[in-house]
Backbone:
């Protein structure tokens, strides 16, 4: 079906070559495959080493552990898509948690406190985005300075005691409660129906417009895989106490942001700016607006992650927002396959990356492995992920020219 | 000396001058382009070709002189203003996003959208974008891989084609191409040149910057020579040899034919 301009002889050009498996991996069609396979491998290894790894109870635990840096990783992914970096997300998350705890401690309505906590991240993200975009200070420096300053702010908010406990049941339920089984099944059913409906509608529409149909095999594979993962996860989690609310929060935001990235003009502009900012500018895209908006979103996601974290801890603490959380979040985004050079990656990958990181931490803890081993393994996996990114980037360049 | 005197030119620039600090980049550039005509803008490095194109594209503003588009003197204060008039530029570095697919690049910055929740949520309508792109591609005889193919995996010629197709898709009256065949293979060069000819045949005015004299002689109706920021000659293609053009470019020629 591929016809190049000019002669038929031309089919030896890169476009024709790009059907090799490796090139399809980096071409985006099976973007998630490498990290998905690594995740399966990691799970098999840990299950062999300790057969309580793949139990409902432990996986439920894993979901709770990863929810916070999953949410942060999702925000970081957006930043990485621009080719920027945000080193302040852990500090912003701590601020979000602290504002939540302080407000709730003063008797503010818990929902108001949650919204205020999240909005604090919005404000900090907006501020940093302005600094990076309008004043053109490199994001590395702005957010490094931000992370220090926000930790200072954290001490002001929390005060001398070092922690502010959260007594409110609504807030503690985020990371302490589970969905009733029936509700989780209703949600799964609704999600699957929506996906099937969207796929069928899209096919019908393409047929009506006389466009070549998309590969049915790939559409159905995607649907069946999603169904298997959703149903499998729900069965497993319901066998223990149910789907943790924190897990639901994570999934909802992943789906929301993945949808924004994929289906809205703003989302496509994030990719355009990350891929070729000059081209985006010449095409009339408001590049500065996109940048500021992404930093704002990442700040908001960080604060939401901080709220989940504070709920899990039952307190806001000056020890929150440390470098572990930052590293785990960035690692989640990068291991998921989002390129540090901008333009390539997806929010879904961050979820998978967070699962990888979470599984390693969880599995190592089950094995009573020393911290040294944990760090070494995590470091090695991160290095492998970035190396893979570098290679695929070079390969893309070769393909292109 | 226009080919057809009866029509008014789509674009006419008169006595453009521009100074960047100590450098007089343009020092009197004048020429015109008619609908259906391919004009080649040639000159040595630093002769002012790119600066001229940037002024017509609205990227830079001239210090002096005027730009007349469809009979109206216009002030092109930004690329958006120029595009609105129907001036499209295909830059040398292509200005495509490698990480996006063909259809996203064709509609970059002008995505078609449909409402999901009226007045609140609008999503990109990829199917509609593909539907609108196909007739334009067919009209120009452009054949590309499936439109959801990532631009990173296209050849140089195909990328150039995507860039040209984008300019056509947006209702251009004047298309400017900066070194459209640089860095292309022989077969791809020919394909792009044919595409440029079809562009002109479809009634658009085309202005091409090129270093490649054989390209210029293959496609141009007229050849405008810049040297040191000024128009030194305008030739009808049939009445000139490549040697004469080169002589004008390098300043070796005595027979300068200055036109307005």
Residues:
């Amino acid at each position: 079906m591929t016809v190049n301009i000019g002669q038929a002889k031309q089919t030896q050009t890169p476009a024709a070559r790009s059907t090799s498996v490796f090139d399809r991996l980096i071409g985006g069609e099976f973007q998630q495959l490498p990290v998905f396979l690594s995740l399966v491998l990691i799970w098999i290894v840990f299950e062999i080493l300790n057969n309580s790894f793949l139990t409902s109870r432990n996986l439920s635990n894993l979901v709770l552990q990863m929810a916070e840096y999953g949410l942060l990783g999702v925000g970081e992914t957006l930043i990485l898509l621009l080719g920027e970096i945000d080193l302040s997300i852990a500090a912003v998350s701590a601020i979000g948690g602290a504002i939540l705890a302080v407000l709730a401690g003063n008797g503010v309505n818990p929902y108001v406190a949650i919204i205020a906590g999240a909005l604090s991240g919005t404000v900090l993200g907006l501020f940093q985005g302005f600094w990076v975009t309008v004043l053109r200070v490199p994001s590395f420096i702005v957010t490094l300075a931000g992370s220090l300053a926000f930790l200072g702010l954290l001490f002001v908010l929390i005060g001398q005691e070092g922690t502010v406990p959260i007594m409110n049941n609504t807030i503690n339920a985020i990371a302490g409660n589970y969905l009733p089984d029936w509700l989780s099944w209703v949600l799964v059913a609704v999600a699957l129906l929506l996906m099937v409906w969207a796929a069928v509608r899209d096919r019908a529409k393409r047929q009506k417009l006389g466009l070549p149909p998309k590969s049915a095999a790939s559409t159905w594979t995607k649907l069946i895989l999603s169904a298997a993962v959703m149903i499998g996860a729900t069965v497993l989690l319901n066998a223990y106490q149910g789907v943790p609310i924190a897990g639901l929060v994570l999934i909802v935001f992943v789906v929301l942001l993945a949808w924004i990235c994929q289906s809205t003009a703003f989302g496509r502009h994030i990719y355009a700016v990350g891929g070729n900012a000059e081209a985006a500018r010449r095409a009339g895209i408001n590049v500065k607006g996109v940048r500021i908006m992404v930093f704002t979103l990442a700040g908001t996601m960080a604060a939401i992650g901080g709220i989940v974290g504070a709920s899990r801890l039952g307190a806001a603490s000056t020890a929150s927002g440390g470098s572990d959380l930052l590293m785990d979040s960035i690692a989640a985004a990068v291991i998921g396959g989002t390129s540090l050079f901008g333009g390539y990656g997806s929010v879904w990958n961050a979820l998978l990356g967070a699962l990888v990181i979470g599984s390693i931490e969880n599995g190592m803890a089950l094995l009573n492995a020393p911290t040294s081993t944990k760090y070494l393994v995590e470091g090695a996996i991160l290095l492998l992920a970035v190396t893979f990114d570098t290679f695929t980037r070079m390969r893309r360049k070769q393909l292109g020219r | 000396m226009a080919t057809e005197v009866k029509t008014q030119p789509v674009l006419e620039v008169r006595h453009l001058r521009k100074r960047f600090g100590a450098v007089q980049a343009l020092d009197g550039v004048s020429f015109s382009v008619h609908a259906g005509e391919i004009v080649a803008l040639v000159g040595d490095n630093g002769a002012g070709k790119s600066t001229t194109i940037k002024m017509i594209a609205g990227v830079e503003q001239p210090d002096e002189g005027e730009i007349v588009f469809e009979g109206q003197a216009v002030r092109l204060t930004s690329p958006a203003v120029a595009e609105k008039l129907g001036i499209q530029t295909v830059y040398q570095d292509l200005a495509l996003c490698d990480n996006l697919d063909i259809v996203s690049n064709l509609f970059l910055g002008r995505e078609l959208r449909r409402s999901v929740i009226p007045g609140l949520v609008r999503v990109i309508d990829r199917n509609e974008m593909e539907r609108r792109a196909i007739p334009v591609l067919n009209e120009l005889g452009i054949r590309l891989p499936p439109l959801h193919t990532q631009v990173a995996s296209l050849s140089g010629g195909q990328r150039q084609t995507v860039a040209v197709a984008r300019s056509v898709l947006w209702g251009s009256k004047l298309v400017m191409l900066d070194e459209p065949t640089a860095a292309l293979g022989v077969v791809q060069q020919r394909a792009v040149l044919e595409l440029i000819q079809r562009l002109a045949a479809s009634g658009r005015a085309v202005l091409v910057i090129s270093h490649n004299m054989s390209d210029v002689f293959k496609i141009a109706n007229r050849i405008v020579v810049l040297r040191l920021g000024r128009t030194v000659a305008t030739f009808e293609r049939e009445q000139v040899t490549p040697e004469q053009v080169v002589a004008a470019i390098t300043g070796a020629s005595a027979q300068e034919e200055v036109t307005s």
About this structure: The beta strands of chain A are 163-165, 315-317. DSSP finds 17 helices and two strands in chain A.
